[in-house]
Structure formats: C-alpha cells, structure tokens
Specification:
The complex is a heterodimer of chains A (115) and B (114).
Chain A (H helix, E strand, L loop, with lengths): L3 E4 L2 E4 L5 E7 L5 E7 L5 E9 L2 E4 L6 E3 L9 E3 L8 E8 L10 E2 L3 E5 L1
Parallel strand pairs in A: 2-11
Antiparallel strand pairs in A: 1-3, 3-8, 4-5, 4-9, 5-6, 7-8, 9-10, 9-11
Chain B lengths: L2 E4 L3 E5 L4 E3 L1 E4 L6 E6 L5 E7 L5 E3 L5 E5 L4 E6 L8 E8 L7 E3 L3 E6 L1
Parallel strand pairs in B: 2-12
Antiparallel strand pairs in B: 1-4, 3-9, 5-6, 5-10, 7-8, 8-9, 10-11, 10-12
Classes of the chains: A mainly beta (115), B mainly beta (114).
Amino acid sequence: DGGITQSPKYLFRKEGQNVTLSCEQNLNHDAMYWYRQDPGQGLRLIYYSQIVNDFQKGDIAEGYSVSREKKESFPLTVTSAQKNPTAFYLCASSIMVGGATYEQYFGPGTRLTVT
Amino acid sequence: AQSVTQLDSHVSVSEGTPVLLRCNYSSSYSPSLFWYVQHPNKGLQLLLKYTSAATLVKGINGFEAEFKKSETSFHLTKPSAHMSDAAEYFCVVGRGGSQGNLIFGKGTKLSVKP
C-alpha cells in the first residue's frame, strides 16, 4: 500500500528539548517537503529536498533542521531555538520532472505540543 | 511572484444545495493550480488540479473548478453538498521555477447543515 507515513500522530515535549518528527514514503518520489499548519494560516513551507543529501530552506526554516540520507526518509528536528513549536506538522512528497510543478501527496500529520 | 487568496474563511450550506468556494490567484505566467481538502486532524487530499490542458477541471467526489484567466480565478464548485463534504479546503498555486513548491491559501472551512 503506497503512501506517506508520519509518526507519531501526537507528540508532547517540554520546552527546551529538541524533538524529531519522522516522515517515510514508498512512492519513489524524488522530492519531499515539510510544512507547518497553524489555525487560519494555511500551510507554510519549512524545508524541502529534491534529491538525496540535499535540501533547501523554505519560508520559515528558523529553529528547524532536516536531513535526507535516504530517498524514502526526510526527518524534521524541531530545535529549542524554535520560538513557537506547538503546531500541526505535515510531510509531503512529489515527483520532480524538469521545471514543472506537480501535485504533492501528504502524510497524516504529527501534532506537536510543547509546554 | 505567485500568490493565492481564498475569499471566504467560512462557508455554510445546507445538504443538497450547491457549493461555491472562491479562489483568486496571482501569477506572472501560466500557473499550476490545485484544490486540496483536509478533514479534521488529517493530512491533505488532492481534489483536482489545473495544468493548462482544459479550463474546466473535474475532480473527485463530484467537485469541479473552472480556470478563468481574465478573472484570475479558480473557484471550486459542487452541484449538491453532502454532509461528508464538511472539511477545510485549500486553493494552491505552484510557486514556479525549478523548485516545484506550492503556495497555499489560508483555507475555507465548509460547514454542511442537515
């Protein structure tokens, strides 16, 4: 069954702790993305990766870090430097062919609460 | 630069009546446009996409959208609302260039009354 998995679904952390969110895809997509969703704000791009061992900052990368050691995996670390980490985090993937824009497929999301 | 504006943050309809969710976009070239749906605490699901092949795009679950270049609009419609359509809907435009990134509208929450 092809798709994107994110774990865990709910995550609770104390302020000052780093936390890593998992994202795995078996769609054989080259590109992967991390978004943050806050009520009434739509989705905002944190980081994206178009190829293994390479990634780019999105619109709100401060306080976050990523790695792309395998095509299937794109974990996101929320560091203690992120001022407002409590949010719903969504991972997505898409094909990459030339310069065209393709639809993205989304995982079920991880809701992070930091107190 | 590309941008997208969803004109209503909340739309309420009765079951069996038509649905209209409005979206305007700004793009310096022929855009790629999408509509996604999100049910509470879930990921996003693609409803339909416009990539310049046809101006009237049909999607899943009876939804369709019409690309109107002169009005820079891409409104989402459905002839008859169902209770299961209650969700949040996002209009999305491709950012362009080689990034393949998407720019999301702020969303329209659709409520369906029995």
